[in-house]
Amino acid sequence: MGRVMALDVGTKTIGIAISDPLGMLAHPVTTLARKGVRHDTAQIATLITDRKVDWVIVGLPLELDGTEERSARLARQIGASVRASTGLRVGYLDERYSSVDAERQLIEADVSRSRRKQIIDQQAAVIILQSFLDSGESAVLEEEA
User: Fold this and answer.
1) For strand 89-94 and strand 55-60, is the pairing parallel, antiparallel, or unpaired?
2) Regarding beta strands 13-19 and 26-33, do their DSSP bridges make them parallel or antiparallel, or are they unpaired?
């Protein structure tokens, strides 16, 4: 499978996580402040090159009924742009509860409120990526090849 990167795309930030070289464990990388699709894609592409990433998983924030609204369209926009820029496989994974789970994990780890605000998106990306690593390719909703 190689090294996998996960993106938790929000309206203001993008949380990024990456797997270890064996594709077993997810680790937080950074949170990017959104500055437009082109700029965001360029920053992500640099990380992809630097970290030798083989595949990108984008969290798809579906509504509770499974439909896609604005947030999901933003995630797809970034995914398509990363695919066009890098030529890598880009898959989408249902991430409806990743931010809630991330918040809970950080509270349980006794991370301060101000620190949680800084790293919540990275932690959500870790949850998305670990879910993918644990479930395998069958967890991918669809892929841009």
Assistant:
1) parallel
2) antiparallel
CB 143 within 8 A of CB 91: yes
Contact 19, 25 (CB under 8 A): yes
Tokens 């699709």 correspond to 37
Residue 79: its H or E element = helix 70-86
Instruction: Look up the pTM and report it.
Output: 0.82
How distant, in Å, are the alpha carbons of 85, 95, 118 from that of 72?
20, 10, 22
**Residues 123/28, Cβ–Cβ less than 8 Å:** yes
Strand order in the sheet with 89-94: 26-33, 13-19, 4-9, 55-60, 89-94, 142-144
**Cα of 85 vs its chain's centroid, Å:** 17
Of the candidates 91, 74, 97, which has an alpha carbon nearest to the alpha carbon of residue 133? 91
Report yes or no: 59 and 101 within 8 Å, Cβ to Cβ. Answer: no
pLDDT one-digit tens code per residue, 93-133? 887 665 656 567 656 766 677 765 666 678 889 989 988 88
In whole angstroms, what is the distance from residue 45 CA to residue 83 CA?
10
